Amino acid sequence: MGIIPWPGSNALTATQVERRSMITTPTPLDKSPFILNSSAVAGILGGEEAMSTAALVHIFEGSRWLGRYNSPGSYVMSHSFARLAESGVCVTPPSGITQVQTDPTVLFESYGWKSPQFRSVYPRVGMVQEAGPLAAIFMRRCASLPGIMVNGRRTRPVGVTIAELNHTPALQESLNRLRIVEPLYSILPIFISIGTCIACAVYRDWYSFSMILLGIVACGISCFVIGSGTFLFTRPESSEGSLGDGILSSDGEIVLLKGGEGAVISITHGRFWLRLSFDAIRALRHCSAVLMTQAIAQLILIPQGSFFGQLMFLVSLVVSWTYNLWLSGLSNAGSLQGEILVDRVLRKPRLVKYVLGTHTSMVVFVLLVFKLKDPDGFMNNLLPSDNSVWKKFKSTIADRLKRGQDLRFDASDWSDKSFSEEERSSLKDLLEDAQAAYNGFEEHKQQFN
């Protein structure tokens, strides 16, 4: 049995343990006094990276066959696959065979992203509703664009992206998988996992051998099941020929959607789905159970192996984790969804981004872009403040827009004797913000008219 050192001695804290019954032959590093423990194994489980890679399987062509390696993160993957199976909704496509549509966003990093608000311009001016998950993805896409700076006062800059939606997607579209070479690099972790598994078998470390093999099988089957689904886009029905112009808004970003109702509703209420057969859903639940079993078994059985076997197991995990980290960073699932939405569903709409220095200038810029002749209600929704200064400002802007006049101001516009000096100064700032927005609109209007 092992030697337990007395407290305070200089002996090694790791103990030399008796060889386990399932390890019957000498192994390399057999005389090493060091033993990898289960907490060390648990500390390198890369759940987020593994899940990001698994989320790409139904997007990349051929990825379903390339998941046969001992991947870390089985605990996180188990929970995510269970959520995917539970998100299913039964549908009957034209083929007549009932299938299950699942929500693939539970696998993506975009799962749980805060959805932006959508405000319709007409016919129900100011109607506010929460948009769907694709709107959040579209907002992130627009937020990453470089912006054209509009001159003027700067307090809290706001990005304003004008999206001209000229294509109306079908009610349902099947999306072909992307063909890229990056997933082919999974051959490296596959080769390492199989090699370390064989090495453990050669030296008869059956604990480590069985855990590496279980990892290869569990990850391989999981990727195969998810990759067997059909990636779809769907949207609700809309009125033909109706305009759907509106505003998506979140912290620091505004997106102006200009186009038909069908195109706009594709962003605000469209969905991505992963359609699977009932057998695949059943297999997905089994995969979730196997992955959870794997996570628990690893922590219990790996410390029972030899140091060589533990090292082989660790090498297979590190190589797999490195590949997952590289692929998830190179092909971020959230950005790929944005690419699919913009390039393949919406057919590359024209996106132009401007950066306004204040919230007030942003509101005036939006009014000018949408050419609203009766902007009162819209301004009251976007600028809810209702003191005397704001009332004067909003009435001045609304009056000029209704008359089709320029938004250029001088001292006579803010020198109201009923206001205090501080109020006149505030009104001056607001009117100058409006003028800056108007100047920016006049300078760039040819780009989006």
Describe the main β-sheet briefly: 7 strands, mixed
Compute the number of helices.
15
Helix content: 40-55%
Strand order of the largest sheet: 4-3-9-10-6-12-5
Residues in β-strands, percent = 5-15%
Low-confidence sequence ranges: 1-21, 38-44
On the 0 to 100 scale, the average pLDDT is 83
What letter string, H or E per element, gives the SSE order?
A: HHHEEEEHEEEHHEEEHEHHHEHHHHH
Query: Cα distance, first to last residue?
Result: 84 Å
Structural class: alpha+beta
Structure description:
The chain is an alpha+beta fold. The chain has helices spanning 38-43, 47-54, 74-86, 133-143, 187-202, 206-227, 261-268, 278-301, 307-330, 333-345, 359-370, 376-382, 388-403, 411-414, 421-444; strands spanning 89-91, 99-102, 117-120, 128-130, 148-149, 158-165, 172-174, 230-234, 246-250, 253-259, 271-276, 350-356. The strands form two sheets. The chain has a seven-stranded mixed beta sheet with strand order 4-3-9-10-6-12-5. The protein has a five-stranded antiparallel beta sheet with strand order 1-2-11-8-7. Helix 4 packs across helix 10 (333-345) and helix 11 packs across helix 15 (421-444). The longest helix is centred in the middle third of the chain and has 24 residues, at 278-301.
